[in-house]
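batch_manifest entry 22 of 60
target: ATP phosphoribosyltransferase regulatory subunit
source organism: Natranaerovirga pectinivora
requested by: lab member K.T.
priority: normal
notes from requester: please return C-alpha cells only, no post-processing; we will run our own comparison against the previous entry in this batch. if the run fails, retry once and flag.
--- input ---
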Amino acid sequence: MLDKLLHTPEGVRDIYNHECLKKLTLQERIEGVLHRFGYQDIQTPTFEYYEVFNHERGTVDTKEMYKFFDRDSNILVLRPDITPSIARSVAKYYKSVTLPLRFCYTGSTFRNNESLQGKLKEVTQQGAELIGDDSSQADAEMIVFAIECLLEAGLNEFQIDIGQVEFFKGIVEEAGLDKQTEEQLRLLIDHKNFFGIEDLLSKHDMSKEHKEMFLKITELFGSIEVLQQAKEITTNERAIKALERLEKVYEFLCYYGVEEFVSFDLGMINQLNYYTGIIFRGYTYGTGVSIVDGGRYDSLLSQFGKDSPAVGFAIVVDELMLALNRQNIEIETIYTNTLILFKEALTKTAIQLTQHLRGQGLKIELQKLNDNGTLEDYIQYGKQKHVGGIIYINEEETVKIIDLETNNTTEAHLSDLIGKEQ
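--- output ---
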C-alpha cells in the first residue's frame, strides 16, 4: 500500500530539483518570445464542461478525455486542448470586438491516451492565438512565431512541416466521397498508411485518376516545388486556392528569412478537425512526436457565438525538453540561492542577517546546523541543491562564506554583511 502511495499514476510524473528549474527557465524564455510578439497572457480553467471539447467541435476523441461529474451531475473534462477554452473565453468576453486579438498562454493539458512508449498523459503547453485576422500574413506570423520560440529554446536543427486542410477537402469534394469514407481516408493519409489507402479506395467506385490522386498525396512532401506538383494532380478550385494560399505564406516566410526551417507536407491532415486552413507541425531529433502543432481554425469561435477567424499554435514543452536533452543542448540556469547555516546559540543573529539579506532582494535559505551534522555535510547538501554559496555563522562576530562553485572559503565580519554594528 505504501509503495502505491509513493508512486504516481501511469502517464504523469514528478518534476523536481534541477530538472524543474530547467523547465521553468525554458518556459520563461519562450514566454519572453511570446511577449516580444505583442501577445497578452490569458488563463483558462483546468477543467471545463464537456460540451466545450466534445467531438463535434473537432477536438480530441471522447475516449481520450478525463471526465468526471460535479455535485450537480454536470459532466466536466480536464482540458485535453487549450485552444477551445480560449475560443470559449474570447466569445464570451470579446464578442463585439472586431479588431485582432492576440493571446498567449502556459498550461497543462490532459489526455487519456493509450500507454505506449511512455507517452505522458499530462503535458505543459505554451502557445499563442491570433483571433480576428484571416490573412495569409497572419498564417506566416504564427509559423515564424513558433520558429523564434524553438530558436530561443536553444534548438538549431528542426523543421516545420506545413500542410493545408482545404487542399484535402477540395480533392475529396472533387472525388465525391461521403463523410465516413473521408474520415477513414483522412486517418490513413495522416498515418502515411499507403496500403491502407489503397485497400480503402479499392472498395469504392471511383475513377482511376481519383484513386491515383489520393495515393499521390502521401508523396507530396518536400520543398516549395511540391506545391507545383500538387497543382498538376487536381483541377478542383478549392484545392488550387489552398495551394495558392500556401505559396503566399511561403513568400511571407521568405521575407522573414526563415524559409530554411520549413517544408511542405500535403499528406499531413491533423487529427484535430477544427482546423480549416493551413496546419503545421514542428519536428526535431530525439523525440518521436511533434514538438509544435498549429493551424487555422476559422469556424471554431462561431460554435461559441463569435464569428471570427483565428490561427494559433502550441509548443509541447515536455517534448521540447526531451529533445534538448537528447541533443545534449544545455538549458543554462542560474542558481542564486544562498544558504545561511547557523549554530543554535546564534539563532537571533542568523535570523537578523537572513531578514536583512532577503530585504536586499537575495534568495536566502535559513538552516540550523544539526547536532550531528558537519559543515561538510551541508556543503554537499548545497551542491546537490545547486545552491550558490553558504554563509556559515559559528561565531558572534565573524562568518565563513563558502562559494560552492569555486569551493573558495573566505571570512567576513557580520557588520560588513548587515551594514551596522552587531
